[in-house]
Protein backbone atom coordinates (compact mmCIF):
# COMPACT_ATOMS: atom_id res chain seq x y z
CA UNK A 1 0.00 0.00 0.00
CA UNK A 2 1.33 3.44 -0.87
CA UNK A 3 -0.30 6.01 1.36
CA UNK A 4 0.91 9.54 1.88
CA UNK A 5 0.86 10.38 5.58
CA UNK A 6 1.01 13.79 7.19
CA UNK A 7 1.87 13.38 10.91
CA UNK A 8 0.28 15.28 13.78
CA UNK A 9 1.91 18.73 13.88
CA UNK A 10 4.76 19.22 16.37
CA UNK A 11 6.24 22.68 16.66
CA UNK A 12 6.30 24.67 13.43
CA UNK A 13 5.23 22.49 10.50
CA UNK A 14 3.61 23.18 7.16
CA UNK A 15 -0.18 23.38 7.08
CA UNK A 16 -1.72 20.00 6.22
CA UNK A 17 -3.39 19.70 2.82
CA UNK A 18 -6.75 19.24 4.56
CA UNK A 19 -7.69 20.23 8.11
CA UNK A 20 -10.56 19.93 10.54
CA UNK A 21 -11.87 22.66 12.85
CA UNK A 22 -11.75 22.24 16.62
CA UNK A 23 -15.55 21.80 16.82
CA UNK A 24 -15.51 19.46 13.81
CA UNK A 25 -12.81 17.38 15.48
CA UNK A 26 -14.83 17.11 18.70
CA UNK A 27 -17.86 15.86 16.76
CA UNK A 28 -15.81 13.52 14.56
CA UNK A 29 -13.99 11.97 17.53
CA UNK A 30 -17.34 11.22 19.18
CA UNK A 31 -18.68 9.58 16.01
CA UNK A 32 -15.47 7.62 15.46
CA UNK A 33 -15.56 6.34 19.04
CA UNK A 34 -19.15 5.15 18.58
CA UNK A 35 -18.38 3.47 15.24
CA UNK A 36 -16.66 0.50 16.88
CA UNK A 37 -14.09 0.42 14.07
CA UNK A 38 -10.46 0.20 15.12
CA UNK A 39 -8.13 2.76 13.54
CA UNK A 40 -11.05 4.43 11.73
CA UNK A 41 -10.91 7.89 10.23
CA UNK A 42 -13.08 10.30 8.31
CA UNK A 43 -12.90 9.77 4.56
CA UNK A 44 -13.59 13.03 2.72
CA UNK A 45 -14.28 12.69 -0.99
CA UNK A 46 -15.72 14.36 -4.06
CA UNK A 47 -18.20 12.81 -6.44
CA UNK A 48 -19.97 14.17 -9.47
CA UNK A 49 -23.51 15.36 -9.02
CA UNK A 50 -25.45 17.96 -7.17
CA UNK A 51 -26.78 21.12 -8.74
CA UNK A 52 -23.34 22.74 -8.99
CA UNK A 53 -21.32 19.90 -10.52
CA UNK A 54 -19.46 18.28 -7.62
CA UNK A 55 -20.73 16.93 -4.34
CA UNK A 56 -18.95 16.42 -1.02
CA UNK A 57 -19.07 13.07 0.69
CA UNK A 58 -17.86 11.86 4.06
CA UNK A 59 -17.78 8.43 5.62
CA UNK A 60 -16.25 6.59 8.56
CA UNK A 61 -13.59 4.33 7.06
CA UNK A 62 -11.09 1.96 8.64
CA UNK A 63 -9.35 1.21 5.32
CA UNK A 64 -6.28 3.03 4.00
CA UNK A 65 -6.28 2.64 0.22
CA UNK A 66 -3.38 2.95 -2.23
CA UNK A 67 -2.60 6.58 -2.90
CA UNK A 68 -4.70 7.96 -0.03
CA UNK A 69 -3.56 11.14 1.63
CA UNK A 70 -3.72 10.48 5.36
CA UNK A 71 -3.67 13.52 7.60
CA UNK A 72 -3.80 13.42 11.39
CA UNK A 73 -5.17 16.77 12.57
CA UNK A 74 -6.57 17.61 16.02
CA UNK A 75 -6.58 13.90 16.85
CA UNK A 76 -8.70 12.94 13.83
CA UNK A 77 -7.46 10.84 10.93
CA UNK A 78 -8.63 12.34 7.62
CA UNK A 79 -8.40 10.20 4.47
CA UNK A 80 -8.58 11.65 0.94
CA UNK A 81 -8.34 9.63 -2.26
CA UNK A 82 -5.97 10.86 -5.00
CA UNK A 83 -8.83 11.82 -7.38
CA UNK A 84 -10.50 14.06 -4.78
CA UNK A 85 -7.33 15.67 -3.41
CA UNK A 86 -6.86 18.37 -6.09
CA UNK A 87 -10.40 19.65 -5.43
CA UNK A 88 -10.06 19.44 -1.64
CA UNK A 89 -6.53 20.80 -1.20
CA UNK A 90 -6.56 23.57 1.42
CA UNK A 91 -10.07 22.72 2.66
CA UNK A 92 -11.26 22.61 6.26
CA UNK A 93 -13.86 20.14 7.50
CA UNK A 94 -16.18 21.76 10.02
CA UNK A 95 -19.36 20.98 11.92
CA UNK A 96 -22.13 23.56 11.91
CA UNK A 97 -25.30 23.71 13.95
CA UNK A 98 -28.27 25.85 13.02
CA UNK A 99 -32.03 25.88 13.43
CA UNK A 100 -32.35 23.11 10.84
CA UNK A 101 -30.04 20.81 12.78
CA UNK A 102 -26.35 20.17 12.39
CA UNK A 103 -23.88 18.46 10.15
CA UNK A 104 -20.43 18.41 8.67
CA UNK A 105 -19.50 20.90 5.99
CA UNK A 106 -16.39 21.68 3.96
CA UNK A 107 -14.89 25.16 3.67
CA UNK A 108 -13.21 24.82 0.28
CA UNK A 109 -10.98 27.58 -1.14
CA UNK A 110 -11.15 25.87 -4.57
CA UNK A 111 -14.91 26.31 -4.92
CA UNK A 112 -15.88 29.27 -7.09
CA UNK A 113 -19.62 28.79 -6.55
CA UNK A 114 -21.73 26.76 -4.17
CA UNK A 115 -25.22 25.35 -4.31
CA UNK A 116 -27.71 27.05 -2.02
CA UNK A 117 -27.80 23.96 0.20
CA UNK A 118 -24.00 23.92 0.58
CA UNK A 119 -23.63 20.28 -0.45
CA UNK A 120 -22.31 20.86 -3.95
CA UNK A 121 -19.88 23.23 -5.62
CA UNK A 122 -18.18 24.17 -8.90
CA UNK A 123 -14.65 25.20 -9.80
CA UNK A 124 -13.87 27.51 -12.72
CA UNK A 125 -13.24 25.64 -15.91
CA UNK A 126 -13.57 22.25 -14.28
CA UNK A 127 -16.04 19.68 -15.51
CA UNK A 128 -17.63 17.15 -13.23
CA UNK A 129 -15.74 13.87 -13.05
CA UNK A 130 -17.43 10.78 -14.42
CA UNK A 131 -18.44 8.39 -11.72
CA UNK A 132 -20.72 8.27 -8.72
CA UNK A 133 -23.46 10.68 -7.95
CA UNK A 134 -26.12 12.51 -9.81
CA UNK A 135 -29.16 14.50 -9.02
CA UNK A 136 -29.95 17.76 -7.41
CA UNK A 137 -29.28 19.55 -4.19
CA UNK A 138 -29.13 17.44 -1.12
CA UNK A 139 -28.60 14.07 -2.77
CA UNK A 140 -25.70 12.20 -1.24
From TrEMBL:
Pfam families: Fe-S_biosyn. GO terms for molecular function: 2 iron, 2 sulfur cluster binding; 4 iron, 4 sulfur cluster binding; iron ion binding. PROSITE patterns: HESB. NCBIfam families: iron-sulfur cluster assembly accessory protein. It comes from Deinococcus ficus. This is Iron-sulfur cluster assembly accessory protein. The lineage of its organism: Bacteria, Thermotogati, Deinococcota, Deinococci, Deinococcales. One of its GO terms (biological process) is iron-sulfur cluster assembly. Residues 18-118 form the Core domain.
Amino acid sequence: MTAITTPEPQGVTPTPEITISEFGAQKALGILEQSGKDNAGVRVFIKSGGCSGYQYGMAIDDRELDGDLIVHHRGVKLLVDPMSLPLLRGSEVDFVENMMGGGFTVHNPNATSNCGCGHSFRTDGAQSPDGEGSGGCGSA
